[in-house]
Structure formats: C-alpha cells, structure tokens
Amino acid sequence: MTTPRTARLLAALHRFHAAHPWDHNAHYHPWLLRQLPRRFGTALDVGCGSGELARLLAGRAREVHALDSDTEILARARESTPATAPVVYRLADARRQLPDGPYDVITCVAALHHLPLAETLTRLKDRLAPGGALVVVGCARASGPLDHALGLAAVPLNLLMGWAKNRGRPSPRRPASMTAPTRPPRETYADISRTARRVLPGTRPRRRLFWRYTLVWRAPATGARRSG
C-alpha cells in the first residue's frame, strides 16, 4: 500500500526525471559494442527506436538493417542518420516480420519484453551467421528481494546520472529515444533467464543497474544450422 509520504516522494522523483531526462538504454551502448568485433559484415537491430545504436553499429558494419514498428520514431531515425551511413530502416512488427539473414550481429535493446520471449529468441538465434553474436539489453518485471534491492540501489545513482548528464540544469526536452511507446515487462528476470538458457545453450544472463538485464549468445563458428 502506498502511503502519502511515499506518494509525495514518487511524485518528486517523477518531476526530477521529467526535468533531467537521460536514456537508460543508451547508457549500455558502450558495453554492447565491447561485445562485438571491430569490423563485421551485416547487423540486425530489432526495435531500433530513433536509431542511436544502429548508427553506432554502422561504424563497424558493412550494412545494418534496423527495424521498428513505430512510424514516427522511424521517421526521426531516418532524419538523424547521414545518407552515407550503411543503415536500412524498415517498418516491421518483429512478432510477424524478421529478415531472413543470416547476420553477423543481432542486437535487441529494450524491445524483447514487447515480443513473445521464447519464440523471438529462437527466431533471432536462427538468423545468426556461424560465429555471429546476439546481444540483448532487456527489461524485466521486478520480483523478489534481489530485484527490489537493485532497484532501490539504482534510485540515487539514477538521480546523479540525470543531474550529471544535464549538467545540473533542466533539459528542454526528452531524448528522442525516450518518446517511443513502451509497456511494462511481463516476465521476471527468473523467467527470462530460464527461457534464455533453454533456447540459447551456454548463455549467462546478468542483472544490471537501472532496471535492465543483459545476455550475450554466440553461434557456433562451424556447423551452425538455421531453421527458418
């Protein structure tokens, strides 16, 4: 039950975040890039949003296919991407449409909780080239003491990051990537970890700060077999 004091605190936090916004997903882009080779051929970015990650991948890839189901956010992505960048944006619902591939790199940041978990992981796995890498930064529903403890630990750090990234001044607007439609995650971290380990043998999901988890899976370098 939410007490009046808790409600006032949450309202104050909401006002602070509205005035000092920062992109939790972009915070993990440097980590994500460290999981990838310096150069690779093709990449697929599922749920690309306003294209920040797709543009970073384009600095290493021969070609990037970036998918999103939101027309407005894709328009912003195209406007922000130089014409010379090797990025192809596509309007697509990843529940029904995924390019066949194969891809050397597949990324999925804060999008997997919008999709059927096991089915999507299987389809992404099947679209990896031999030796390719699937990298996920995802959102999970908090459940259990550890999740709630990490969430509490993230609150002061989140405030500090918002303050630092805005240099102490209120931001005139939210980052474009934060304007896309979202919905709360349904699966808990335990659900996601269990499913990921079954579909992607050898993967080791990790809880992260700022209400995120990560997982990395690499396809076998030889003898890989695609099913669809």
Characterise the protein shown here.
The protein starts with a helix and ends in a 10-residue tail after the last strand. The protein is globular and about 55 Å long. With 228 residues, the protein is α/β, with parallel strands linked by helices. Strand 4, helix 5 and strand 5 form a beta-alpha-beta unit. It has a domain at 26-140 and 184-218: Rossmann fold (3-Layer(aba) Sandwich), CATH 3.40.50. It has helices spanning 4-19, 29-34, 52-58, 71-80, 117-126, 145-165, 189-199; strands at residues 40-46, 61-68, 87-91, 103-109, 128-138, 206-208, 212-218. Mean pLDDT is 83; it is low at 224-228.
Structure characteristics:
228 residues, alpha/beta, Rossmann fold, 7-stranded mixed β-sheet, 7 helices, 7 strands, globular, disordered C terminus
Question: Layout of SSEs?
Answer:
Blueprint: H1 4-19, H2 29-34, E1 40-46, H3 52-58, E2 61-68, H4 71-80, E3 87-91, E4 103-109, H5 117-126, E5 128-138, H6 145-165, H7 189-199, E6 206-208, E7 212-218
Parallel strand pairs: 1-2, 1-4, 2-3, 4-5
Antiparallel strand pairs: 5-7, 6-7
Structural class: alpha/beta
Question: What distance lies between the first and last C-alpha atoms, to the nearest angstrom?
Answer: 48 Å
Shape: globular
The CATH architecture name of the domain at 26-140 and 184-218 reads 3-Layer(aba) Sandwich
Our count of helices gives: 7
**Average pLDDT number:** 83
What is the H/E string? Answer: HHEHEHEEHEHHEE
User: What is the top-level CATH class of the domain at 26-140 and 184-218?
Assistant: Alpha Beta
**The CATH H-level homologous superfamily of the domain at 26-140 and 184-218:** Vaccinia Virus protein VP39
Instruction: Assess the beta-strand content as a share of residues.
Output: 15-25%
Radius of gyration, whole Å: 18 Å
Uncertain stretches of 5 or more adjacent residues: 224-228
Number of beta-strand segments: 7
> What is the CATH third-level topology name of the domain at 26-140 and 184-218?
Rossmann fold
Helicity level = 25-40%
Strand order of the largest sheet: 3-2-1-4-5-7-6
- Main sheet characteristics: 7 strands, mixed
